[in-house]
Hints:
By secondary structure, the chain is α/β, with parallel strands linked by helices. Helices cover 30% and strands 34% of the residues.
Amino acid sequence: MHIHNIGETNSVLNTFIAEIRDQKIQKDPMRFRRNIERIGEILAYEMSKYLPYKSETVTTPLGTKIVQLNKENKVLCSILRAGLPLHRGVLNYFDRIDNAFISAYRKLKPNGDFDIRVEYFASPSLQDKILILADPMLATGQSLISTYEALLSHGTPKELHVFAVIGSDDGVNYIEKHLPKDTHLWIATVDDTLDDHGYIIPGLGDAGDLAFGDKL
Length: 216
């Protein structure tokens, strides 16, 4: 797997990461959503450098100009509901991309373990397309793998790109073992630790709740 940890270099991205972690700034859900969206924009921009391009001629009112454009068929799939702000950020840059949505959540067991449940799923064909799979929190990696396996019922993509905001070392290692070897992971930052419940430490908390409010 090709791992692109964008937060390892100094850039404005670090401001957005700091703000989504800050428990005081987190109290403003609109700002939290916007910062996730901004991170999605940066990840999309960085990914765009690795896509294939072709020369095309654009006609202006005063002449013509040859430009390099990417017109590969791409599909963006986000995991509901936490993935929605990240999804919007990617759409801001890949505005003609096709869209897919899937729900995946943890179903706790009495012993404290959990299963991953995949329920709602809407997607176009993925056959021979570039698939971007977006989930802001890459904790254990289990929900992302369950999502990818469910998506394969709609075809096999020719490329897979995973977008995440914060991950754990365990989560990164897990998906590296279970996804195709040429997968690209675009991630804003990686933390070292998971707690006993599989949450990233220090992380930021529950991204879905911070963006959209508490759930039952």
